[in-house]
Design brief:
This protein is mainly α. The protein has 9 helices and no strands.
Length: 176
C-alpha cells in the first residue's frame, strides 16, 4: 500500500539525496535504478505495516525470514516473486540499517550472515520469475541487488551514519 502524504514527498527527496550521494560519492556506485530502488525501499519501510506485510494463508503475520521463505515456496507466479522480493527487501533493510538488532535475533535462529545469504538468494530467485507486466523492479535490477547485496547493505549503513551525523549537527545548532 502506498502512503501518499506531503511528508512522504519531503522524506522521499531526503532519502533520494542522501542515498544518491552516499552510493555515488562514497561507494562509486553509479547505477541510478539501483540507487532509486534503495531510496524507495527506505520510504516504503518507514511504515511498519510494510515491513511486516507478508501473511500466511490464514492471514497471520509472518515474522521470520524462514517463515517468509516457506510462504514464498507455497506460492506461484507473481505472488511467489513478490514474497521473494520482500525477503530481499526485508533482509537488506535490517542488515543495512540495523545490523545490531540482528545480534539480538540470533536466539531465534536469525543472524546477520544468514540474513545476507537469504537476501541474496531471495533477490536472485525473484529475478528469475518472469512477468508479463511492467514492473517497478525488473528482473535485471533484482539480480543486481542480489549480486551486490553486501555492497548495498554497507551503503545503507553509510546512509544511516549520514543521517545520524546530520541529526547530531542539527541538535547542536538547536542547543546553541
Amino acid at each position: 500500500m502506498a502512503h501518499s502524504t506531503p511528508e512522504r514527498g519531503v522524506l522521499a527527496r531526503y532519502f533520494a539525496g542522501v542515498t544518491e550521494s552516499t552510493f555515488q560519492t562514497q561507494l562509486g556506485v553509479v547505477d541510478p535504478p539501483l540507487v532509486d530502488y534503495v531510496s524507495d525501499l527506505l520510504c516504503r519501510f518507514v511504515h511498519s505495516d510494510t515491513i511486516h506485510r507478508i501473511r500466511n494463508l490464514t492471514g497471520k503475520r509472518v515474522a521470520s525470514v524462514a517463515q517468509m521463505a516457506v510462504e514464498a515456496n507455497q506460492r506461484i507466479g507473481l505472488a511467489r516473486r513478490d514474497v521473494h522480493r520482500h525477503i530481499g527487501d526485508f533482509t537488506l533493510f535490517w542488515t543495512g540499517l540495523f545490523p545490531e538488532a540482528l545480534e539480538r535475533r540470533q536466539k531465534t535462529g536469525d543472524s546477520f550472515h544468514d540474513y545476507c545469504a537469504q537476501g541474496k538468494r531471495a533477490y536472485l530467485i525473484a529475478a528469475t520469475i518472469e512477468t508479463d507486466e511492467e514492473q517497478d523492479a525488473p528482473g535485471e535490477l533484482l539480480e543486481r541487488l542480489g549480486v551486490n547485496f553486501e555492497l548495498c547493505a554497507y551503503g545503507l549503513r553509510e546512509v544511516r551514519r549520514e543521517w545520524e551525523e546530520e541529526g547530531d549537527s542539527t541538535n547542536s545548532l538547536l542547543l546553541d
